[in-house]
């Protein structure tokens, strides 16, 4: 008799489990479907980014080749294509190249804008801080020291990849602003920094000597005067430089009729 009750109870329990399983089936199916969608989405995104990175790499290499061959317009067009890529690294590099082109064309404000965009797009401090430093060096002789310092403060923090270069930029910015004592202090730090290059330490020692001799006071004025000078007027072939006495052969040359 006990066996009969046990068998009935087992059947009832099995029936309850089956009903629970049937009720839970839609939820389980939904969870599995969502997991599948997520997995497919991740795979698709990875595939997309891989293809985009490969394409950006190829286009970037073509742009460099065009630039080295002197085909600057083609290079700028190709760099512009890479700058629209979802690959953050190549986008940052391309924007920096375009910034360099603007700087070469004597368009510093446009160059700074592109360097700032490159820093924003960069996936890591290696690329981002490089772009930020380029912007600082473009602004070094025109922007107020306060603005330069705001840009440099994050780059001077412990662990940033270009701390020594940022310290050097800060020193030169202070020198340009007439803060020779502050600049000298920075140059002393650079000369003692273990991660500073030999060139940076040499420049720091030379700058200290310049400051100690009193000659550094003329540096800001000289730089600003040089920036304010108009571009030189191109001369025709064979023409004498204005203000210079022509040589004897030039004095004896017949005058064109």
UniProtKB/TrEMBL annotation:
<dbReference type="InterPro" id="IPR019734">
    <property type="entry name" value="TPR_rpt"/>
</dbReference>
<protein>
    <submittedName>
        <fullName>Tetratricopeptide repeat protein</fullName>
    </submittedName>
</protein>
<feature type="repeat" description="TPR">
    <location>
        <begin position="92"/>
        <end position="125"/>
    </location>
</feature>
<feature type="region of interest" description="Disordered">
    <location>
        <begin position="237"/>
        <end position="257"/>
    </location>
</feature>
<dbReference type="Pfam" id="PF09976">
    <property type="entry name" value="TPR_21"/>
</dbReference>
<feature type="transmembrane region" description="Helical">
    <location>
        <begin position="24"/>
        <end position="45"/>
    </location>
</feature>
<feature type="compositionally biased region" description="Low complexity">
    <location>
        <begin position="237"/>
        <end position="246"/>
    </location>
</feature>
<dbReference type="InterPro" id="IPR018704">
    <property type="entry name" value="SecYEG/CpoB_TPR"/>
</dbReference>
<dbReference type="InterPro" id="IPR011990">
    <property type="entry name" value="TPR-like_helical_dom_sf"/>
</dbReference>
<feature type="domain" description="Ancillary SecYEG translocon subunit/Cell division coordinator CpoB TPR">
    <location>
        <begin position="27"/>
        <end position="184"/>
    </location>
</feature>
<keyword id="KW-0802">TPR repeat</keyword>
<keyword id="KW-0472">Membrane</keyword>
<feature type="compositionally biased region" description="Polar residues">
    <location>
        <begin position="247"/>
        <end position="257"/>
    </location>
</feature>
<keyword id="KW-0812">Transmembrane</keyword>
<keyword id="KW-1133">Transmembrane helix</keyword>
